[in-house]
Amino acid sequence: MKEHLKECMQAIIDGDTERSEKLAKLTLEKGMPVLEVINKGFVAGIREVGRLWEEGELFLPELVIGADAMKMAMGILRPALEGGEGGPDRLGHVVIGTIEGDIHDIGKTLVATMLAANGFEVTDLGADVPVAKFVETAEEKGADWIAISALLTTTMPGQKKVIEQLEAKSLGNIRVMVGGAPCSAEWASEIGADGYAGDAVAAVALAKGKTG
Ligand code: B1M
Predict the structure, then answer these.
(1) Which of 10, 115, 180, 187 could form a disulfide with 120 if both were Cys (CB 3.0 to 4.6 A apart)?
(2) Distance from Cα 182 to the centre of ligand 1, integer Å
(3) 102 C-alpha to center of ligand 1: Å?
């Protein structure tokens, strides 16, 4: 298992899409714990790519290729997470997306998958989602939660704008959670969000704890 995790991580660092596809398929064939392989293998790999890029050891095209390899693996593994307790609107409805100006969608999609697998109805708006779109969709769907991902410090203020628009429209009953690498519990409380989740498992726990 340890060796498999290392190989998954390396495939992403190398931007080797073919290898990440093979390793993701092997994960399923061998019945390995999917979430653990995602987090300790593939996610560890893409984070290392980010670190190497930040240190100037990798260039932007390599970051893009690493992300492609990551998306390949996630596409294969995601259905295995989707089984869950399912059922429409069993625990509540979550409208999720990555905030405008931000195209990072790997973490957001993992969070959406885990919420759906754990009994929430999920409307995934994708990435680069305008502030007003979050608010309109949540109102239209009667959502319990809006979950807003931001991976860039420059796009984080958009999360605050969603909360301000909700308040302006007297929709303060719709709870807001924020997440993504630069976010924190302090940021959530500063902007008046109902919570912060550091990963997909925490997002499920947060939504479960406060919905209803
Ligand atoms: Co970009 N990027 N990127 N990038 N990228 C980061 C975020 C960065 C930290 C890299 C670095 O400097 N080390 C840096 C941001 C710096 C900053 O603002 N502080 C950065 C930058 C600068 C950029 C560009 C500006 C680069 C450029 O063009 N010069 C550009 C921006 C484009 C844009 O959005 N407008 C850019 C582009 C890209 C790619 C397109 C190449 C690619 C994204 C591909 C895609 O998503 N479709 C990419 C990638 C892959 C990364 C890193 C390496 C990895 C992100 C990722 O997928 N992680 C990232 C470095 C890093 O994060 N360490 C980086 C794996 C994922 C599973 O984790 O997204 O954290 P994460 O999600 C977690 C938790 O955060 C949480 O749960 C998830 C699962 O555990 N979570 C939530 C996330 N959202 C949540 C929502 C919730 C709850 C929990 O509810 C609300």
Answers:
(1) 115
(2) 9
(3) 9
